[in-house]
Amino acid sequence: xxxxxxxxxxxxxxxxxxxxxxxxxxxxxxxxxxxxxxxxxxxxxxxxxxxxxxxxxxxxxxxxxxxxxxxxxxxxxxxxxxxxxxxxxxxxxxxxxxxxxxxxxxxxxxxxxxxxxxxxxxxxxxxxxxxxxxxxxxxxxxxxxxxxxxxxxxxxxxxxxxxxxxxxxxxxxxxxxxxxxxxxxxxxxxxxxxxxxxxxxxxxxxxxxxxxxxxxxx
Length: 218
Ligand code: AP5
Fold this sequence. Notes:
With 218 residues, the protein is of the alpha/beta class. Helices cover 50% and strands 17% of the residues.
């Protein structure tokens, strides 16, 4: 793919978007734009915007489009995104967001949309077993905990369960995915931009397949 890279990763909650976007961004020197991470950062700092977003996130609801669009548009206008490119993680999630993204990137739009396809029973297990570091955000699971007493191996902060990884919030998030986000698959397919890959294989095997896709994309 020629610069600027303009890649979107979509998939159910727990499909591995964050995991794979961060590997891809690191290997190509791209901006990794995770709207979930941006929102959690604002909640942690306690900005007015963060306090507003927190209620939606804890319930597992989407934050309103107009709130999220302003943030993404500002970020995409930065020189690193314009010159080298980006991988979007968790955005767009609604047809309104996808249409707005097309307008922001007019006339070319995004170059490649990767749909990470993972069965629901697998994502349910991944989300309910996930634990995250409150300092650096490193992800662990109950199957692979940190070496000492739920303290992060990298930064020594506490490792906890995400507030939206409760059974109620997970079920709400997956229902919203089915109803509001999954129509993006057909939308991007019609535009000839979508490639679906299985995301339930080994971490590194999925990363290699993604790297090949990006290399082959125009
Ligand atoms: P966000 O943080 O984006 O959460 P999400 O969409 O629910 O996605 P997750 O982080 O749960 O899953 P993921 O696909 O990134 O998987 P991960 O790599 O972590 O958004 C949070 C909230 O913010 C939303 O609910 C909403 O309120 C708000 N928001 C965000 N964007 C928004 C938008 N555009 N519009 C409106 N509101 C928005 O992996 C999950 C687990 O699986 C990890 O433990 C990982 O280690 C494991 N795993 C990953 N890959 C593999 C593998 N191959 N094999 C085994 N385990 C694996």
